[in-house]
Amino acid sequence: MIAKSTPAFLIDALVFDAYGTLFDVQSVAATVERLFPGRGVELSQLWRSKQLEYSWLQSLMQSAVQRREDFAAVTAHALDYAAEALCLSLTGAARHRLLDSYLDLSAYADAEPTLARLAPRPRLILSNGTRAMLEPLAAATGVARHLDVILSVDAAGIYKPSPRVYQLAV
Question: In this predicted model, what pLDDT tens digit does every residue of 106-135 receive, in sequence order?
């Protein structure tokens, strides 16, 4: 017989990352593929890898005198690196189009229904993205109607995995 027990803690809110959890960062591959046939997956994966690496490095190296770049700038630098590393010529128009595709990611198919089922508990996003990146994305995908708060690391002044970021949700 399985004993029923009362949990030792209560869940006050549910906090989700945006990129890779609610929104499919690899959905940019379709746009990349149109611009660079046969290279969509390769460029989008390297772009995402560098985006994470650059944000982690900024967190590790940040000091009182260094200014952290916002996630839009990190995303742009990561794209520039990935295109150059793969010997892809990135025109200004193509670069702009690819960066815009990051503002138009697809939500995972289960994101909206799952968030809806989790009501009435407060549901939050806590992300490295800027509010200017996150709010339109959440609205366009329909996810916003199931969220109570969208939190950006900008309020903490540092990227994940710094503990200061997670304190934003407490």
Answer: 999 999 999 999 999 999 999 999 999 999
